Amino acid sequence: MSKTEPTIEFHDGRLLQRLDLFLVSQGMGFNAGTEKRRRLHDAFALDALSDCQLAYMGMTRADIPAFVFADLLGNS
Predict the structure, then answer these.
(1) Most buried by CB count within 10 Å: which residue of 18, 24, 41, 42?
(2) pTM for the structure as a whole
(3) Are the C-beta atoms of residues 19 and 47 closer than 8 Å to each other?
(4) Taking the CA atoms of the chain, what radius of gyration do you get in angstroms?
(5) Strand extents, DSSP E, 11-64
(6) pLDDT tens, the chain, 76 aa long
(7) C-alpha distances in angstroms, 4 versus 1, 7?
């Protein structure tokens, strides 16, 4: 059997753009592509919530990237 990367289809690039801009702004010093792929499920799950649900959590859509990578970057 050969191992292949799963195919991921994106219908809305706004979340991916926010993730990319966040990671670039952090100056992580390594290629975060692998780490980003690991966290996409969480990011899309949060992005699927309504604005009201995010507000209840104290978040906006702009906060999703920082929340998803908080453990890696030491942000709380």
Answers:
(1) 18
(2) 0.62
(3) no
(4) 13
(5) none
(6) 456 655 555 556 788 888 878 877 777 655 677 777 888 899 999 999 999 999 999 999 999 988 998 887 766 5
(7) 9, 9
